[in-house]
């Protein structure tokens, strides 16, 4: 091996992948490297959608390699490929879906659906292929939040399944696409469970990296059944900092633990409110609750979203904040949460997968 190659590898071995706590070499992220004639070509493949970090990482690699003696030029290309995760043992994977993320809350009205749609959009903005399954049978709201016109129906894919409806670059399926408004509200338990089962088994998802499931609020039979039938890679609990919501969030966490679904973290919604008149910020529903339960259950506080008029208005008008203001402050919080989630799942998948990634190295 040439001295230059050794030096290049040594530099790559010192560069950490953002959010991953691993360097490029150890993570097996380098899938091609050529140093011919002092022209360095590095191909990097990350295991999480990386649009938000690729540019900065590319620049920091190029800058560090350019300092080496013998380097005439340097080109770094970064791509990503999301791996599938197993979910609970014995539950077969869903066709066309690599990872299922359940978004749940113990209590209704804490902003679970708003968080789901914004996180899904944020994950797509990071470069992933994403879908949403609205399993909130009694109050399906994803169609409205995604701006899908009433009366639009999913098209049959084949004799047994429907294609999801595309909106804002996401694939989506919801009970609201299939029944008249309010029909589901009067369903009794078994009917609702049956309808949900149909949604789960008869949707033909197309090549998704992540499917977000907007779970029904609470921790009753439907939630438990869902957790036992769907191969969930991990769950996210949405809560407000309020005592009662936190108590319910704890029940949610315990339910997922019972069925062996890892809780990837907690999102605290409606954390604070900033007065649009005077700019004063107040913790209307209390302070520090999300962090407290994340610590109690040894999971992570993934992010905090304020109670903001624009978050509500944009979701209600069919263009949630991440789509309406992709560069806005709230979109950035959702993207950071999405990235953290993707990295946590990737680390979990890498641990489960003992196969050493292959490094293809061109001769120099
Ligand atoms: N961070 C926020 N700031 C302002 N309004 C919000 C925020 N999050 C959610 N909302 C609003 O609060 C209301 C309830 O939110 P959402 O429907 O997402 O809650 P949910 O927990 O899914 O409710 P349900 O349990 O009824 O399904 C909606 O009108 C939504 O626009």
From TrEMBL:
The record's Pfam families line, in alphabetical order, gives: FeS_assembly_P, ParA
Q: Is Cell cycle among the key words of this record?
A: no
Q: Which residues form the MIP18 family-like domain?
A: 6-77
UniProt keyword terms in alphabetical order: ATP-binding, Hydrolase, Iron, Iron-sulfur, Metal-binding, Nucleotide-binding
Q: Where does ATP bind?
A: 106-113
Q: Which Gene3D superfamilies match?
A: Fe-S cluster assembly (FSCA) (3.30.300.130), P-loop containing nucleotide triphosphate hydrolases (3.40.50.300)
Among CDD domains, the record links this protein to: Mrp_NBP35
GO aspect biological process, one term: iron-sulfur cluster assembly
Supply the InterPro entries for this chain.
FSCA_dom_sf, MIP18-like, Mrp/NBP35_ATP-bd, NUBPL-like, P-loop_NTPase, YlxH/NBP35
Q: Which domain of life is it from?
A: Bacteria
State the Gene Ontology terms under molecular function: 4 iron, 4 sulfur cluster binding; ATP binding; ATP hydrolysis activity; ATP-dependent FeS chaperone activity; metal ion binding
The UniProt entry's GO CC annotations, sorted and at most eight, read:
cytosol
Which HAMAP family does this entry report, sorted A to Z? Answer: Mrp_NBP35 (MF_02040)
Assembly with partners or alone: Homodimer.
User: What PANTHER family does the annotation carry?
Assistant: IRON-SULFUR PROTEIN NUBPL
Q: Which family is this sequence assigned to?
A: Belongs to the Mrp/NBP35 ATP-binding proteins family.
What role does this protein play?
Binds and transfers iron-sulfur (Fe-S) clusters to target apoproteins. Can hydrolyze ATP.
**Protein's recorded name:** Iron-sulfur cluster carrier protein
């Amino acid at each position: 091996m040439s001295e230059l190659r050794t030096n290049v590898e040594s530099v790559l071995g010192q560069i950490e992948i953002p959010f991953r706590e691993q360097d490029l070499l150890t993570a097996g992220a380098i899938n091609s490297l050529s140093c011919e004639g002092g022209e360095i070509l590095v191909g990097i493949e990350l295991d999480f959608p990386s649009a938000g970090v690729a540019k900065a990482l590319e620049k920091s690699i190029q800058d560090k390699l350019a300092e080496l003696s013998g380097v005439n030029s340097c080109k770094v290309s970064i791509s990503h490929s999301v791996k599938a995760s197993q979910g609970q043992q014995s539950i077969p994977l869903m066709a066309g879906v690599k990872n299922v993320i359940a978004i749940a809350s113990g209590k209704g009205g804490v902003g679970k659906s708003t968080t789901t749609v914004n996180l899904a959009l944020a994950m797509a903005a990071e470069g992933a292929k994403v879908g949403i399954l609205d399993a909130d049978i009694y109050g399906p709201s994803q169609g409205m939040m995604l701006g899908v016109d009433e009366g639009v129906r999913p098209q049959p894919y084949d004799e047994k399944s429907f294609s999801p409806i595309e909106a804002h670059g996401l694939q989506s399926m919801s009970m609201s696409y299939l029944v008249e408004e309010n029909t589901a509200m009067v369903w009794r338990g078994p009917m609702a469970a049956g309808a949900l089962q149909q949604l789960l088994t008869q949707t033909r998802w197309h090549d998704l990296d992540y499917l977000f499931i907007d779970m029904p609020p609470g921790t009753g039979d439907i939630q438990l059944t869902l957790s036992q039938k769907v191969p969930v890679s991990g769950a996210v609990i949405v809560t407000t900092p309020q005592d009662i919501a936190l108590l319910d969030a704890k029940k949610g966490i315990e339910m997922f633990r019972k069925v062996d679904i890892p809780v990837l973290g907690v999102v605290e919604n409606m954390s604070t409110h900033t007065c649009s008149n005077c700019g004063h910020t107040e913790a209307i529903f209390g302070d520090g609750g999300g962090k407290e339960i994340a610590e109690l259950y040894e999971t992570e506080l993934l992010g905090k979203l304020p109670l903001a008029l624009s978050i509500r208005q944009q979701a209600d008008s069919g263009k949630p904040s991440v789509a309406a203001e992709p560069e806005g402050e709230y979109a950035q919080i959702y993207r950071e949460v999405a990235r953290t989630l993707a990295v946590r799942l990737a680390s979990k998948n890498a641990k489960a997968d003992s196969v050493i990634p292959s490094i293809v190295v061109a001769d120099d």
